[in-house]
Write a structure and sequence with these properties.
The termini are far apart. Strand 4 and strand 5 form a beta hairpin. The chain is built from 5 helices and 6 strands. With about 210 residues, the protein is of the alpha+beta class. It has a domain of about 100 residues: Hepatocyte Growth Factor (3-Layer(bba) Sandwich), CATH 3.50.4. The protein is about 45% helix and about 15% strand. It is extended. It has a 6-stranded antiparallel sheet with strand order 1-2-3-6-4-5, covered by helices on one side.
Length: about 210
């Protein structure tokens, strides 16, 4: 009877702990949803092609497998993407990923950031046959200027890194020493020494007798 009562108490404690965890989890999810709604961007679908995000106009150039979902785009959209000519969103594991590309005739960015490399990006970095969309930015915004304080910090960091590299190179550089060539022993002297060793009368000899 005592064992049964102990087991019942332990079960009740376990159930209460699980319920508390569930409540905490639900509260965390609710706070997260509120934060997403508060910071979400405003996405307005005007027609099948024209879309407005925070009052800026975009054209929906491609919408493969209905990858464009206005609510999710509003949650995932970042102001950093406004500097790009095209914005590509692809789905993987129920998560939307968005990336910016420059126009074909643009000299900005690296070669892989050009929209002409879109197919390479889809083949290499996206799930096979995944849903995706392409937005054409009609109002490209210039990138925000870097504050003077951050510039000074970055320049100081670069100078410090250069100094550290010079110090490391100084310590890691190989030291060269002049090594003199040793004289080769004379063959005649070696033969004489060996002969003297063989015919030395003072040298002791031992013999092992068998029992």
């Amino acid at each position: 009877m005592l064992k049964k009562s102990i087991f019942k108490k332990e079960d009740k404690r376990g159930m209460s702990l699980n319920s508390e965890k569930k409540v905490r989890r639900e509260q965390q999810l609710a706070k997260k949803a509120e934060a997403i709604e508060a910071y979400a961007n405003e996405v307005v679908v005007i027609d099948d092609v024209r879309v407005e995000i925070d009052g800026k106009s975009y054209d929906l150039v491609e919408n493969f497998h209905n990858g464009f979902i206005s609510e999710k785009v509003g949650e995932r959209f970042s102001q950093i993407l406004t500097k790009y000519d095209y914005i590509v969103g692809d789905w993987g594991y129920n998560q939307l990923r968005m990336r910016g590309f420059y126009a074909e005739d643009s000299k900005k960015g690296l070669p892989y950031q050009n929209i002409s490399r879109l197919q390479d990006y889809l083949n290499e970095y996206c799930n096979f046959g995944c849903a995706y969309f392409v937005l054409h930015n009609l109002e490209v915004q210039p990138p925000e200027p870097i504050p003077a304080k951050i510039r000074k910090k970055s320049s100081k960091k670069k100078s410090q890194e250069k100094r550290n590299k010079k110090k490391n190179n100084a310590f890691m550089s190989e030291k060269k020493y002049n090594v003199r060539n040793k004289k080769k022993p004379n063959k005649k002297n070696v033969k004489l020494r060996n002969a003297n060793k063989k015919h030395n009368p003072n040298q002791r000899h031992f013999t092992i007798r068998q029992k």
